[in-house]
Amino acid sequence: MPMKRKVLLFLYATVVVVCAIGLFNSTTNRAEFTIKASIQASTQDEDYIGLLALKKYVEQQSNGRVEVQLYPSGQFCGSVPECIGNLQKGVLELFPSTAGGTGNFFSPAQVIDLPYVFRDDEQAECVLAGPLMDEMRQQVLQQGLNLRLLGVSNTGGWRNFATTNKAIHTPKDLKGLKIRTTPADIQQELVRQLGANPTPISWAELYTALATGVVEGSKNGIQDIIGAKLEEHLKYVILDGHSYMATLWWFSEPVWQSLPTDIQQIVLDGFQLQVNAANQYVKDQQDNSYRLFEAAGGTIYRPSVAEKQAFIDASSQMRPWFAERFGNNWLDLLDKAVAQCPANSAS
Questions:
Q1: pLDDT of residue 12
Q2: pLDDT at 28
Q3: SS3 for the chain, per residue?
Q4: What is the pLDDT at residue 346?
Q5: Pair 233, 296: CB distance under 8 Å
Q6: For site-directed labelling of 269, which of 176, 239, 320, 334 has its Cα 20 to 30 A away?
Q7: What is the C-alpha separation between 114 and 205, in angstroms, rounded?
């Protein structure tokens, strides 16, 4: 194992141990404010790694005035609608949802899930920390949803098509295949436009659905595949990178308004550390996950520029589909943000 990787893993392990100790040595008795953060992912996930960084910073910088309580693996609430409802009622402070999940209460958020928009991590991170998300934050607040968008982090790398029994090199190879999607309309529509059959299935049921042939593929990041042991059934991955796996972090607006200004700033600063830690963890783990997939007998295909363009062309009606439902304003904002955030020339 390379020395750099050993050092990184040691640092991550140290952070986990230190913060775990902090959880047991609760500051509840002296904390003025409590921030409860819930995620549906496990303690091995980048979402949790990011929250550990936020917890450490906020508790230290507030001199114990704030306690951050972490609830991984759905311990606080079991579904996105339930968790969002808890935020709106002020009984939960912090919770993430993907663009698709956010679409349940703010449909235009799906604009960041349009396929083949971002070329690399740097461009995606730039766009998702800029004016586009500022506008989304304001729109949600203006609609009185009792939710405040703190920001966006990566939650698993890039979505790629993965299949059980057939390698995918072109959009034509997807024709007729049953591909698992989330319930989000935009993800189903992409699969449909590429000629496959979208099959919404919950994450908890996906392993069995692949094992029994209910679906013949999925569209996930490699770390999610390895984390859920889906490589036992998925044998082919094409690195088409159709979407960046962004998760939007929401804070309870009623609680936010009750926090003093100095505490709000500490939370915002801590959140930036959270984003940095989560994004870096994804990048550090991604290559290893690809190696584990291949070690399990899987095949990874890297499409040529022409093959990648074929996927882009085959999904060209996604923009008209979005505009018909949500108008052109969000598309214009997205285009402007992308133009202001050029991709890494080395990509």
A1: 53
A2: 45
A3: CCHHHHHHHHHHHHHHHHHHHHHHCCCCCCCCEEEEEECCCCCCCHHHHHHHHHHHHHHHHCCCCEEEEEECCCCCCCCHHHHHHHHHHCCCCEEEEEHHHHCCCCHHHHHHHCCCCCCCHHHHHHHCCCHHHHHHHHHHHHCCCCEEEEEEEEEEEEEEEEECCCCCCCHHHHCCCEEEECCCHHHHHHHHHCCCEEEECCHHHHHHHHHHCCCCEEEECHHHHHHCCHHHCCCEEEEEEEEEEEEEEEEEHHHHHHCCHHHHHHHHHHHHHHHHHHHHHHHHHHHHHHHHHHHCCCEEECCCHHHHHHHHHHCCCHHHHHHHHHCCHHHHHHHHHHHHCCCCCCC
A4: 53
A5: no
A6: 334
A7: 25
pLDDT, position 55: 98
Measured distance CA(340)–CA(147) in Å, rounded = 28
Which residues of the chain fall short of a pLDDT of 70? 1-29, 345-347
State residue 203's pLDDT score: 86
pLDDT for residue 25: 41
